[in-house]
Amino acid sequence: MVRISKLTDYGVVIMAFMAGEPLRLFQAKEIAEHTAIAQPTVSKLLKKLTKSKLLHSVRGTHGGYILAAEPKEISIAMLVNALEGPIAITECSLGHDYCATAPSCSIKVPWLRINQAITNALQSVKLNDLIKVGQLEPIGHRNQRIEVHHVQH
The whole model's pTM is what? Predict the structure, then answer.
């Protein structure tokens, strides 16, 4: 299963919260209270996002954190890359050839295409998309009702 970590999920929640008022300084305590994420976790993520240049940090008693760019310029791919590392569903997607079958691999190119499709999808969703509707609509299904059927095994 391809899945982002809980920390990355929390990082997106934090950034979406901050994107609601993109020109405002936020303190870790305030973010923790509004997002219901533990303050140590919020602080850890704020430091990582600052190190990745997605946030600016202002020191002092009236300091805090502020978005480094407008919400429309920050993609989910940027957040995933900052918190998880490069987007890659296989080792060869990173350009590594650790696999013993790499020289004769017949599925490397399809995996690279799949990885690029995932990257493109994450690049197409911006922070301002998260705050416009409160949650994302399924891509490709806008204005359509989606039914989910659970299958029992």
Answer: 0.79
